[in-house]
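Workshop exercise sheet. Pairs work together: one partner reads the sequence aloud, the other fills in the structure field after running the prediction. Swap roles for the next sheet.
Pair: D.N. / O.F.
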Amino acid sequence: MGGSRLVSVITVSHGQEDLVVRLLATLEQFSRGHLREVILIENQPSRAGQRYESLSNIVRTYVNARPRGLAKNVNAGAGLATGDYLCIVNPDVYFAEDVFSNLLQDIQAGHGDIVAPLIVDGQGRIQDSARHLPTPRELLARRLVPKYRTIRDESQIPDRPEWIGGMFMLMPMQVFRQLGGWDERFYLYFEDVDYCARASLAGYRLYIDKRVRAVHEARRASMRHPWYLWRHIVSASRFFRSPTYRAAREPRSPGRPGEPR
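Structure field:
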């Protein structure tokens, strides 16, 4: 990419200063030449105030007066962004290589409009970060039967999924804006599923580049805490009852409006 700074990175922190420090350090080490800015939104005002050394000249920190939902935070960050491309990334993600070179090339070559690397955990095990559109039955099975949440190898991750996890997704800024951003009726969970479903219906393609990987140390809060579990249930119910889900589940014949390009 010739050192041009194209990408606006958005990350939303919930008092996760240590994780943000690590994320910024690995962005600086591997991807600085691709970055226009990092927009850091601190969603817990009482925990704000950390000053970051890595990428200090391009990190823009915004502190919420009160906590807001993830979709609202991401949309606010996108409204402030000035890059040609937008990357949404969780603070608990970090990098061991430059993923942006390949992903930007994927977009420019037409492989996908919303792209992501393979996501692995700290031990290098592949995470279930991209798959086909979930169904209520599948979601219940995945929660009750642990083996359905286990990925054995990268062949189980589709190159062209119907959903990419919101822990990392990269796209042209115009794609995000044309889709109206993330749906703010989702306070937490399923905003990424809804967004990807709407993207597919609008004709945009999703793509996983298995040549590159990012590390995600998932917290799985909904597996442990009742409040997060309740949020997960509420968001899943909203999505499965939505016109977006019904439209996305309908078979589409070639040439029909909304068919992926």
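Discussion prompt: Residues 254-261 have pLDDT under 50 and may be disordered. What would you look at next?
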